[in-house]
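Researcher: Let's do a round of design. I'm pasting the structure tokens now; please hold your answer until I've finished.
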């Protein structure tokens, strides 16, 4: 009874802090509003992804589409266009990227160190270890995480700040915060991820760096940053149509083409997956990674580490989107650099399937903990 009275008093104080205005809080774990969030996540995000994977599998089975051609289209055309378009036209303030970018980088490094330690202890082969590392470190922050953040935390709603923040209202915009994660993950995937994929195959760091330098995405990223600086210099400036429009059209095609490529890869050799490495990826990617993100963010909060203190917002959104499945780009890198593409495809597919349950669970836990 005392706990209930304390909660009522806290809510009352929050209402008075907003001058009597109604306060909209996140839905409770036991309420029907949680179902209103979970339903769109499953129906509007996950099922379309699985449908495009199925279409790719059907195309491979029916017409025997060439996997090498699909992979090169992604790596040398769609991915560079996507990176250029998103970076060059981004409206995100440069200074605001700090905290979210730093936390994302630190989590990727921590996950990589854990996978490396486990791989060394179990004496895992170089190709297998690289595929597992890519699958755990780099997640589908864009075409899965961005809609997830937008659905769970829509813009324009004032909500009571979560645990540890005290009474009061805080403005949450999930998509705006997640955009920083998307940019960071893309840059890390095609820099750190490229190094992991290349060294796993060749073993020689010099040859690996040479292979990386032949990839177009790094040069495109540099050009995109230059274009962004040029556009920021004068609001009246705009990219030439001959550059802007093709980049926009090609960027829009990345997600479907990448998922179709995944489906074609899965259909090229139907099999039961190697459950030992796949199960490790499932645990680390879908369960351990968001738990690690939560522990890091709460630790930074307790230490009061300035820009890294993102608790409770956008910490709760970062924990939720850290639970999304493996990025499709990891499969593309593995295929292009002659890695363990079979294992990479299994990791992308099965983390996507099992995320139906794990993301639902994480959403319930987060709603319960951060509820006012």
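Researcher: That's everything. Go ahead.
Model: Designed sequence:
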């Amino acid at each position: 009874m005392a706990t209930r009275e304390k909660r009522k008093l806290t809510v009352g104080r929050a209402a008075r802090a907003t001058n009597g205005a109604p306060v909209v809080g996140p839905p409770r774990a036991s309420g029907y509003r949680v179902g209103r969030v979970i339903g769109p996540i499953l129906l509007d995000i996950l099922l379309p992804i699985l449908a495009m994977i199925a279409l790719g599998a059907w195309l491979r089975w029916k017409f025997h589409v060439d996997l090498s051609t699909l992979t090169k289209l992604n790596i040398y055309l769609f991915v560079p266009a996507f990176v250029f378009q998103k970076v060059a036209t981004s409206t995100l303030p440069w200074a605001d990227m700090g905290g979210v970018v730093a936390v994302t980088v630190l989590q990727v490094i921590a996950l990589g160190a854990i996978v490396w330690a486990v791989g060394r202890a179990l004496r895992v082969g170089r190709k297998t270890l690289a595929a597992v590392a890519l699958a755990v470190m780099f997640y589908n922050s864009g075409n899965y995480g961005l809609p997830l953040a937008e659905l769970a935390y829509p813009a324009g709603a004032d909500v009571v700040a979560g645990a540890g923040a005290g009474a009061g209202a805080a403005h949450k915009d999930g998509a705006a915060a997640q955009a920083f994660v998307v940019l960071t993950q893309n840059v890390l995937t095609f820099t750190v991820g490229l190094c992991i994929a290349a060294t796993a195959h060749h073993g020689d760091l010099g040859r690996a760096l040479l292979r990386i330098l032949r990839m177009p995405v790094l040069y495109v990223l540099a050009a995109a940053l230059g274009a962004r600086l040029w556009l920021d210099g004068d609001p009246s400036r705009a990219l030439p149509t001959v550059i802007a429009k093709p980049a926009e059209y090609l960027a829009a095609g990345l997600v479907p083409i990448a998922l179709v490529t995944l489906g074609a890869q899965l259909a090229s050799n139907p099999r039961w997956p190697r459950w030992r490495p796949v199960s490790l990826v499932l645990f680390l990617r879908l369960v351990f990674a968001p738990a690690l993100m939560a522990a890091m963010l709460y630790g930074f909060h307790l230490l009061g580490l300035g820009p890294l203190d993102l608790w409770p917002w956008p910490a709760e959104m970062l924990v939720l989107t850290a639970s999304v499945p493996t990025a499709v780009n990891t499969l593309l890198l593995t295929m292009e650099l002659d890695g363990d593409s079979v294992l990479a495809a299994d990791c992308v597919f099965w983390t996507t399937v099992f995320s139906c349950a794990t993301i639902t669970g994480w959403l319930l836990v987060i709603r319960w903990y951060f509820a006012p």
